From TrEMBL:
Cellular-component GO terms for this entry: extracellular region
Natural source organism: Raphanus sativus
Site keyed Transition state stabilizer: positions: R73
UniProt-annotated binding residues for Ca(2+) 2: T199, D246, T249, D254
Paired cysteines (S-S): C46-C122, C79-C84, C128-C322, C205-C237
Protein name per the record: Peroxidase
Length: 326
């Protein structure tokens, strides 16, 4: 599947055939969702919608390239709770936004900015959930990741409760993490590809400091971590609250993350376990050896994730303000 939102495409017919075949496969995975989601959903109701999103994401990326990691996190944290319904964006003392795992989610102001321009151009037309999906797609491309078209037509949810937030943590077992993905209709290739978004991510030092200081009460670092990385993280975390999860190309969306896992240079415990667990080590090896293959699989996975429990048709609403229900 190939769709370059910033330049004209070559091989038009081949691209269209690839897009159709990929979406056909995904239709059989998420038949109800894909029956109503479609590429170019706003082509008649708001023709400039994707251009508005793209331009504002490009502007923000020009100021802060970590916006890619932020939007990927937002997209994942939204879709894995009540589905891709923008429930994460709601303000409130007990909304999803207040849950502990969402304390690291940011770029809400960018979503507000995009929504304001879309409301000015096409009132009550483009959902906040589609804004997250499109903005994430465009930011991945800007970071050197794959270009792809993604179906739109999601509607925004009417519920946002912090008690619903149950996301995989950095110390979860590989089998536990894979199970969470399979429960959402994805497979092990999807799970590892989506975790591969850590190639542009940062982690709070408090989430992995035991790995380079006192692993499981031993008084020594985790033996599964490269000694050079132990030293590097000690220095980094002594001067900063966060560290890059990809120590090689932290702002580029590529397969270097997987190459480092195979060298015992995974920062999160879960990430490192992917390289040795029997369920995932072969997938890590394939992604590490072929950047293009990883990117293709990532596209399939993020499109699947974008269809998880979506609201379409007359369900939900189109919020006028992403932070509040209508």
């Amino acid at each position: 599947m190939s769709y370059n939102p910033f330049h004209k495409k070559k091989n038009f017919l081949s691209t269209k055939m690839m897009k159709f075949s990929s979406l056909l496969v995904l239709f059989f995975v998420f038949p109800i969702a894909f029956a109503q989601l479609r590429v170019g959903f706003y082509s008649q109701s708001c023709p400039q919608a994707e251009t508005i999103v793209r331009n504002l994401v490009r502007q923000r990326f020009g100021v802060d390239q970590t916006v890619t990691a932020a939007l990927l996190r937002m997209h994942f944290h939204d879709c894995f709770v009540r589905g891709c319904d923008a429930s994460l964006l709601i303000d409130g003392t007990n909304s999803e936004k207040t849950a502990g795992p969402n304390g690291s989610v940011r770029e809400f102001a960018l979503i507000d900015q995009i929504k304001a321009q879309l409301e000015a151009a096409c009132p009550s037309t483009v959902s906040c959930s589609d804004i997250i999906t499109l903005a994430t797609r465009d930011s991945v491309f800007l970071a050197g990741g794959p270009s792809y078209s993604i179906p739109t037509g999601r509607r925004d949810g009417l519920v946002s409760n912090n008690v619903d937030v149950a996301l995989p943590g950095p110390t979860i077992s590989v089998s536990g993490a894979v199970s969470l993905f399979t429960n959402k209709g994805m497979n092990v290739f999807d799970a590892v590809a989506l975790i591969g978004a850590h190639t542009v991510g940062k982690g709070n030092c408090g989430l992995f400091s035991d790995r380079f200081t006192n692993f499981q009460g031993t008084g020594r670092p985790d033996p599964a971590m490269d000694p050079a990385l132990v030293s590097s993280l000690r220095n980094t975390c002594a001067n900063s609250a966060t560290a890059s999860l990809d120590q090689s190309t932290p702002l580029r969306f590529d397969n270097q993350f997987f190459k480092q896992l195979r060298k015992k240079r995974g920062v999160f415990q879960l990430d490192q376990r992917l390289a040795t667990d029997r369920q995932t080590r072969g997938v890590v090896a394939r992604y590490a050896s072929n950047n293009a293959y990883f990117k293709r699989q990532f596209v399939r996975a993020i499109i699947k994730m974008g269809a998880v429990d979506v609201l379409t048709g007359r369900a939900g609403e189109i919020r006028r303000n992403c932070r509040r229900f209508n």
